[in-house]
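Troubleshooting log. The previous structure file for this entry was overwritten by mistake, so regenerating from the original sequence record. Sequence copied from the archived sheet and checked twice against the printout by T.R.
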Amino acid sequence: MREIVCDVAIIGAGTAGIAAHRAALKEGARSVLIEQGPGGTTCARVGCMPSKLLISAAEAAHVARGAEVFGVRVEGVGIDGPAVLRRMRSLRDDFVASVFEGLDDLPAESRLTGRAVFEGPDSLRVGDHTRLRFKAAVLATGSSPSVPEPLHDLGERVLTTDTVFEIETLPESLAVLGAGPVGLELAQAMARLGVRVSVFDPGDSLGGLKDPDLTAAAREIFSGAFNLHLGAEVESGAAEGDGVHLTWSAKEGADSTSGSGRFARVLSAAGRPPNVRGIGLERTGAQLDERGSPAFDARSLRCEGTALFIAGDANADRPILHEASRQGKIAGRNAARLAAGAGVKRPERWVMLAMVFSDPQIAVVGGGFDEDAGHRVGGADFCDQGRARAMDRAQGGLRLYAEPGGRLVGAEMIGPEVEHLAHLVAYAVQDGLDVAAFRDRPFYHPTLEEALDTALGQLADRDG
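Regenerated output below.
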């Protein structure tokens, strides 16, 4: 077994790991990037990009079917499932290839391939071929999909966010477990592509919304797109022919009822826990919780009491690409600084920004709705907004939240193309704007952005 000594070891070559490696090299550190999975980043391979490709195909079908409202007739809309999936995989593979091309410009001697396991606080083993000694390390091992216990014995009948994009044709029916962002996006896309879809979630919300009014709107909107079972938990699953028979129970007070049914496939979208088990973290001196995750500072990303840093999905804090990229840079720079004997830096965090690319879209900025925070609330509805009506997309609404003194702290929204409105609110919150300052901006007519002006107007009136 060969021995290598470096300043910084980066474990994982996804979004966070690549960013950390580049940052450490830029700081002048001898950094080694350990590639231990299929590579290509979660976003490009099994996340953001393939899901958006599927969503785009579903949107094309939906728009064609609904064109008659504009006086445009599209006859005989058909779905070629294998063709949809082939296009998705072809473009997905292009995105993955571009990630690998980006890695090719890194020094070959700074990359290793194999599974990394810690042997102590300053050493690890890569496969059965290399022992690496380091002064600091970045844990960027990503995450893996979880499969609920009732589905464990169903084999390939159960799809995950790692396998759903590899199917050759669309199933006749699909049970989706999880009504979070990923489950909601894929459920609606599949339904629009002609799949009979049912969504199950033990909670009572959709896509991360917490505001009661917007949650109610979301339930009404999406229950018209597929069978929605909120407050229901799948208790058992059994193979039935080439499909699956599920049994579920509804909690007391839920709108759903208990029942059972057969589905061609099941999609587990019940979360992606971090890949932190089985890699020897107990030998590093890190303080581990019951899930095996290390305690860490959310700003410096340093694991308490160690020379380790943790970034991206591995820390399960904000498993979103733009956060993973920034965290990787912070962790890489800090690891290089620590290796050089300097102190670590603790930059301010970005405002939280999360989106669901459903139709209508969902977005949450900052902490979103908090009934105990005493925030003032300003709202607007898209149901009667001129631009939304012109687009035949008059659904949903938005809520802005401000402190009693007027400073904006967050928002929740569900509506047409709210990804753009959410960015504007995120910048306002990040910059510390109050209601008056944000309202003193141009809002062009007629645009969806005018909903922000309406909500800000409500907040301003309440100031008076």
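The chain has a mean pLDDT of 93. Archived copy saved in two places this time.
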